[in-house]
Structure formats: structure tokens, C-alpha cells
Design brief:
72 residues; alpha+beta; Alpha-Beta Plaits; two-stranded antiparallel sheet; binds iron/sulfur cluster
Length: 72
């Protein structure tokens, strides 16, 4: 089932208290994620378009501290 079929706008959010700034998410999806000057993640684009879903899923799964999650 696609993100759209599940209903609602899919977004990704970060818990900055968990982020340790390794940048694995940025490597997976530079369009959505960037590690800022303070070494914590900045979400560049929270809305996940269907065409970006696989790379954002990869980013969420690659985060070693589980700082990223999908929300609706
Ligand atoms: S992969 Fe996780 S810990 Fe690393 S920068 Fe991204 S959110 Fe932070």
C-alpha cells in the first residue's frame, strides 16, 4: 500500500535530543535532511512525497539512535 493509499500527508520528524549528528540520514536523502552547524539534524523538507518515500525510509532505518520517525 502506498503512502497516499494509507491516507493523509506523510511527514518525517526528528527528535533532536536523540540525534548524534552522524549524517546517515543526510547521505540517504539530502533533499530532506541536513546536519546543522550545531551537529544536530535540520529537517529541510518534512513532507514526504511518494517519489521520495524509499530514500526517506532508508534514512529513518539508517538512523542509529532512532531519532527519526514518520508522522501523519
Ligand atoms: S542519522 Fe539519526 S543521528 Fe544521524 S544525523 Fe540523522 S537523525 Fe541524527
Amino acid at each position: 500500500m502506498s503512502a497516499e493509499a494509507a491516507g493523509g500527508t506523510l511527514k518525517v520528524e526528528v527528535d533532536r535530543t536523540r540525534c548524534i549528528g552522524l549524517g546517515l540520514c543526510e547521505a540517504a536523502s539530502p533533499k530532506h535532511f541536513e546536519v546543522g552547524e550545531d551537529g544536530k539534524l535540520i529537517i529541510l523538507q518534512s513532507v514526504v512525497d511518494s517519489g521520495d518515500l524509499s530514500e526517506v525510509e532508508e534514512a529513518v532505518e539508517s538512523c542509529p539512535t532512532n531519532a527519526l520517525r514518520f508522522v501523519r
